[in-house]
Amino acid sequence: MNYKGKVTSKMINNLEDYKNQLEDGIGEMETMVDQLRAEIHDLLEKKVALEKVVEVFKNDLRNFI
Protein backbone atom coordinates (compact mmCIF):
# COMPACT_ATOMS: atom_id res chain seq x y z
CA MET A 1 0.00 0.00 0.00
CA ASN A 2 1.40 3.38 -0.96
CA TYR A 3 1.49 6.46 1.26
CA LYS A 4 -1.72 7.90 -0.19
CA GLY A 5 -3.54 4.63 0.45
CA LYS A 6 -2.28 4.51 4.05
CA VAL A 7 -3.41 8.07 4.72
CA THR A 8 -6.82 7.39 3.19
CA SER A 9 -7.17 4.20 5.22
CA LYS A 10 -6.20 6.05 8.42
CA MET A 11 -8.71 8.82 7.67
CA ILE A 12 -11.46 6.26 7.08
CA ASN A 13 -10.62 4.52 10.36
CA ASN A 14 -10.66 7.85 12.20
CA LEU A 15 -14.04 8.70 10.70
CA GLU A 16 -15.41 5.29 11.68
CA ASP A 17 -14.14 5.79 15.24
CA TYR A 18 -15.72 9.24 15.36
CA LYS A 19 -19.01 7.86 14.02
CA ASN A 20 -19.00 5.15 16.69
CA GLN A 21 -18.32 7.72 19.41
CA LEU A 22 -21.21 9.84 18.16
CA GLU A 23 -23.54 6.84 18.13
CA ASP A 24 -22.50 5.96 21.68
CA GLY A 25 -23.12 9.56 22.76
CA ILE A 26 -26.54 9.55 21.12
CA GLY A 27 -27.40 6.33 22.94
CA GLU A 28 -26.37 7.87 26.25
CA MET A 29 -28.45 10.97 25.51
CA GLU A 30 -31.48 8.83 24.68
CA THR A 31 -31.10 7.08 28.03
CA MET A 32 -30.87 10.42 29.83
CA VAL A 33 -33.95 11.72 28.00
CA ASP A 34 -35.90 8.61 29.01
CA GLN A 35 -34.83 9.09 32.63
CA LEU A 36 -35.85 12.75 32.52
CA ARG A 37 -39.24 11.84 31.05
CA ALA A 38 -39.82 9.37 33.87
CA GLU A 39 -38.75 11.96 36.46
CA ILE A 40 -41.04 14.61 34.93
CA HIS A 41 -43.93 12.13 34.94
CA ASP A 42 -43.33 11.35 38.63
CA LEU A 43 -43.13 15.04 39.49
CA LEU A 44 -46.36 15.79 37.65
CA GLU A 45 -48.12 12.99 39.54
CA LYS A 46 -46.82 14.41 42.83
CA LYS A 47 -47.97 17.90 41.81
CA VAL A 48 -51.49 16.64 41.12
CA ALA A 49 -51.57 14.79 44.43
CA LEU A 50 -50.34 17.88 46.28
CA GLU A 51 -52.96 20.04 44.58
CA LYS A 52 -55.65 17.62 45.81
CA VAL A 53 -54.28 17.77 49.36
CA VAL A 54 -54.26 21.57 49.25
CA GLU A 55 -57.84 21.63 48.01
CA VAL A 56 -58.98 19.31 50.81
CA PHE A 57 -57.09 21.42 53.34
CA LYS A 58 -58.76 24.60 52.03
CA ASN A 59 -62.19 23.00 52.29
CA ASP A 60 -61.49 21.78 55.81
CA LEU A 61 -60.27 25.24 56.77
CA ARG A 62 -63.40 26.86 55.33
CA ASN A 63 -65.60 24.43 57.26
CA PHE A 64 -63.66 25.09 60.44
CA ILE A 65 -64.10 28.86 60.23
Salient structural properties:
mainly alpha, coiled coil
Topology of this protein?
Layout (H helix, E strand, L loop, with lengths): L2 H62 L1
Can you walk me through this structure?
This protein has one helix spanning 3-64. The chain contains one helix and no strands. The mean pLDDT is 95. It has one domain (1-65). It is mainly α and 65 residues long. Residues 19-53 form a coiled coil. Keywords: Coiled coil.
The number of distinct helices, counting runs of at least 4 residues, comes to 1
Beta strands, count: 0
User: What is the beta-strand fraction?
Assistant: under 5%
Question: Rough shape?
Answer: rod-shaped
Tell me about the biggest sheet? none
Mean pLDDT: 95
Structure classification: mainly alpha
Flag low-confidence runs: none
Summarize the structure.
With 65 residues, this protein is an all-alpha fold.
